[in-house]
Amino acid sequence: MTTPENSISALEVAESPDVCVTDNASVKRAVKATMLGNAMEWFDFGVYAYLATTIGKVFFPDASGSAQLLSTFAIFAAAFIVRPLGGLFFGPLGDRIGRKKVLATTIILMAGSTFAIGLIPSYESIGIAAPILLVLLRLLQGFSTGGEYGGASTFVAEYAPDKRRGFFASFLEFGTLAGYVAAAGIVTIIQTVVSAEDLLQWGWRIPFLIAGPLGLIGLYLRLRLEETPAFQMMEQAEERSLSLADESTGKKLRETLVDNWRPLVLCIVLVATYNIAHYGLLSYMPTYLTNTLGYDESHGLVLMIIVMIVMMMGISYVGKFSDRVGRKPLLLSGFIGFFVLSLPAYLLIGIGNYVTVFLGLAILGGLLLLFVGVFPSVLPALFPTGIRYGGLAIGYNLAVSIFGGTTPLVLTALESATGSNLVAPMYMMIAAVIGGIAVLMIPETARKPLDGSPPAVATDEEARRIIRKVRRKRMKADNLEV
């Protein structure tokens, strides 16, 4: 005689609302497509940061050296100002019409605006119109990027099985580092093989023009994806309850801001503190090495490339380790490490010896690795499925706008005002204290289902075990009612 314990067919597993079986091939396709988009996003931001001195000369030739740099970083920060607007627009839209459609749109806008920057005539050719066009295109980049990270991390988190979410989600930040490494590598090669005059005339354009074909590849990969299982199951549930017609972008936005304000605030605090360390190292450090410590641009970038490649090699192991020991212990270790070791690391860098510079960078990179390997799985788990894209897009981009993109500008301005080379580590230490407190307030989500979604597993056998457990609970509940 068959019982609920042994009568679960493959069809029942596929159609069960109590569990979701993830397809390994689909998970890998999702990771590749989102990773490439993230790589392209940070390739652009990396290129802009690493060419900051050159861009200042091209678009602000009449200004002094420090004014050129501040103007360039001000435009860098301008792109981040509109990122929350992009999050407000694309995030709730992704919760309403689906993650895939919005991610295809954002990568088109990102690639197109980056490519167009490489075509802007110089200040000498069209005058004030040149920096105006640069600002407008950077604003378009920032707006489209506002829907990128929240959607990409949501996409991977909802595809990955619960027990391996940390591992798969970590590849999103692998894409971030790959974008930075590609940007630093290409900029270093161009600076090495092209004369200073040619770099100002046309060489700086090459990295931006590369974004065009990269965007087309990313769009192709994303269009081949299916919508995430979690979103499909939510849509089916809404259709069954006839509530889909009542959904609107405005309703999703209100649900995010009003009903889920606590995870939104925690997301903002965590992302803000993490991004101060992130941008302080990956965006500000090359300029710090060149303008403050006097290193030539190519040597500073080579050291950064080595550190980032080492981080890339370790990031998936950190994500995998977080699946075993939990997210919170690793995040706490990272924040404590930044508080204790930021100042010693910068003092090592300030000695000026290449060995000590690399050692200081390696300390900061190792600590940052604890963040980049864990945050992609932590942040999506803060929000329920129905508003995950919107909540993450709004919280992430608001924090990045205020504290991330402005970090190079703030540190450059503070350093100029105070004359101190130790502004950056002090900034990081303050952020570390605040971030550590926020970590203590978030739930541990390793190996647990996403809020609002059923358990996600990798095999049918795991699914059958969960279904059997659910059926036993229901049978007990029915017997108690009788």
Question: SSE layout and pairings?
Answer:
Elements: H1 10-15, E1 20-21, H2 24-50, H3 52-59, H4 65-81, H5 83-97, H6 99-117, H7 123-126, H8 129-145, H9 148-159, H10 165-193, H11 196-203, H12 205-209, H13 211-223, H14 229-240, H15 249-259, H16 261-282, H17 284-292, H18 297-325, H19 327-351, H20 354-372, H21 375-378, H22 388-404, H23 407-418, H24 423-441, E2 456-457, H25 460-481
Parallel strand pairs: 1-2
Helix pairs in contact: 2-6, 2-9, 2-10, 2-13, 3-4, 4-8, 4-22, 4-23, 5-6, 5-8, 5-15, 5-22, 6-8, 6-9, 6-13, 9-10, 9-22, 10-18, 16-20, 16-22, 16-24, 17-18, 18-20, 19-20, 19-24
Element order, helices and strands? HEHHHHHHHHHHHHHHHHHHHHHHHEH
Total helical elements: 25
What global shape is seen? globular
DSSP helix fraction: over 70%
Number of strands: 2
| Category by helix and strand content | mainly alpha
Strand content: under 5%
What is the strand arrangement across the widest sheet?
A: 1-2
Report on the structure:
This protein has 25 helices and 2 strands. By secondary structure, the protein is mainly alpha-helical. Helix 2 (24-50) packs antiparallel against helix 9 (148-159) and helix 10 packs antiparallel against helix 18. The radius of gyration is 23 Å and the shape is globular. The two termini are 24 Å apart. Residues 1-5 have low confidence and may be disordered.
